[in-house]
Amino acid sequence: MLYFLLLAALGALPVWGQTCSFVLSPPVVNVQAANAATTDGSTPGTVRVDASLSSCVRPATSNASWITVTFGNTGTGDGSVGYTVARNRTPSSRTGTITIGNAVFTVNQAAASCNYALDSTGFSAGFAKVTGTVRITTTCVWEAVSNVPWITIPTGSAGVGNGTVTFSVAENSSPTLRTGTFTVGTQTFTVTQEGVPCNFKLTPASVSLPTAGGAGSFNVSAVEGCAWQAVPSGFAGIAITGTATGSGGGTVAYTVAANTFGLPRTGSITVGGQVFVINQAAADCAFSLVPGTIAVPPGGGQGSFTVSTACSWAPSSNVPWLTITSGSTVTGNGTVTFTAAANTTSEPRAGAIAAGTSTMLVTQAGVSCNYGIAPTSVTATSAGATGTIAVTAADGCSWTASSNAAWIGVLPTTGSGAGQVSYTVAANPGAAPRTGALTIAGQAFTVNQAGSGTGVRISSAGVANAASYAAAAVAPGQIITIFGTGIGPPSIATLQLTPDGLSIAKTLTGTRVLFDGVPAPLIFVLDSQISAIVPYAVAGNGSTQLQVEFNGVRSNVVNLEVAPAAPGLFTLDLSGKGAAAVLNASDFTGISASNPAARGSVILIYGTGEGQTNPPGVDGRLTTTDLPSPVQKVTVTIGGIDAKVLYAGGAPGLVAGLLQINVEVPVGVTPGSAVPLIVRVAGFESQPGTTLAVK
Asked: Would you state the pLDDT for residue 332?
């Protein structure tokens, strides 16, 4: 009784006859695996304790290591107990409790959402022992577990969060490739390891046997598990007498038959890539071949000779053009038959056929050298020519090529067999024709060339305005067309820019156009037609002399009148008549019957022959920012009504000499598909018959 009174006095028991009970609010709590509101992911909480008596003692004790009582672990009567639930880093849910007095508070915590990632999924190793590492990325608990005994985890076998696993791969003493794995978290890491190399060794490595042959053996050393097979080669007398296959170490036994040939022979037995060499002495043999030598004709054919001996022998040829047609192996006397291929060269040749220890010499003469060329002549224009000549000759037949004239070149000057030579005929500067020749492989090749009097020539009345095709006076900077024969290359060559990119060139494929000796810019050149620009240097002259030069040969001289201006308009069909080449200024579309110009609209007219400009024209110069304008006044009439000229001068980005005129179509003009269009420069008019479609 004294004991219970003492406890009651200390508050451990209620008043005699009364019991303590506790009510928890809440009795159970469910928490997530991690709390985003705390730095360590833990979840704090409080449970309310209601005691039946104020004297009831309520100690609070956690029954799980991951639940910590933070306050209220002692006290009497009503109160609160604080707790903290640590972050769950496992993929499993868990349940723990806190005992408060005689009541139990239950904590249910959800499983962590665990994602595991390895920085690599596999590792390839040689046969030797090796270590490696793999990095795991996760927020959870993990463990590294090997699934095979030859992979161990010496460090980093477990952890929480990111970490590094070190693994060790034991030496593979087998030649077989093996694969093993270990698991980190939920991820599998695969290790592939090569087998130990199968290095074979043969002891001894060779043997020398007498003519009679014999038996023997050699040892094979290799790692257990390395399979091998013994394979004889070299000659038919080698045989394996014991087992021909094995694994690891072993012995190979063999026999070698007697050598009946008059030559020593060498054979071998190959085991695991290693060669056991067998050298055997020759039989004591004598061979007699009849006849002593054989000569075959250049065209080839068949031949034969006899062999006298008591030994075995096999015929063989030392050159590809001699083919053995008789049997391969003979014992005793026999006959060798063969075929000789035709000799297609002029050089004689020799080969040998061996029979035992003796050889038969076979000789063959070369073919006779007969030469031919095609073609055997050429007729060239005064402008010159190039070409090729085919040479026919047998292989090995040498030949030379030479010229009897300095104006005829030939390459190459030497050759052999069938081939080809190239020739070059220079331009003929003289009026008379000329003849020369080449000598190729002793054959004559004749070259006939016309004189320049009939080669480069400007046609009568062959100079015209390139826009209007009017054959009249020329003006400085005018684009013209020249007609003739032999005045340029057979294929058209179009303008090229000078290296600085600012002008068009004055020479194209050996062609020049000269005005009083001054070269003109060239737009295109052809053997029958050239388009050029009259140099501005003719300004102020009453006339000029025109010549065309092609490959150094000059044409006849044509005298031309020079005028201050000679306007011409370009037309759509390039005939110099009909619809003019005109653009809408608003959208740069072409004016035509299907797209007429509106009255009051601005149009762009293109022509040439406006004469000297300000600033002074530069031959062949491309028009850029400093646009040149004609020195003479430019006027335009459309349907007989004066049109307002807004601009007259160089066409931006195009060559000097091409005239662009921007005009406003008169409002009062009568619409039509072919309204007359006239351009006047200093009293000179463009060609009649040029029209403009107006709506």
From this structure: 87
Encode pLDDT of 88-132 as tens digits: 988 889 999 999 999 999 999 999 888 899 999 999 999 999 999
Nearest to 339 by CA among 310, 356, 319, 311: 319
DSSP for 7-64 reads HHHTTSS-STT----EEEESSEEEE-S--TTSTT--EEEEEEEEESSTT-B--EEESS
* Neighbouring-strand partners of residue 592: 595
Question: Which domain range does residue 618 map to?
Answer: 568-694
- The answer to whether the predicted template modeling score (pTM) of the entire model surpasses 0.85 is no
With vertex at residue 52, the alpha carbon angle to CA 49 and CA 55, rounded to the nearest 5 degrees, is 90
**Are 142 and 163 contained in the same domain?**
yes
pLDDT for 5: 34
Domain final residue, candidates 534, 561, 588: 561
Residues 599 and 508 occupy one common structural domain: no
| CATH code assigned at 228 | 2.60.40.10
Instruction: Give the total number of structural domains in the chain.
Output: 7
397 with 384, same domain: the answer is: yes
Element (H, E) at 493: strand 493-494
Same domain, 25 and 89: yes
Which pLDDT belongs to residue 347? 84
Which has the closest alpha carbon to 341: 300, 396, 395, 302?
A: 300
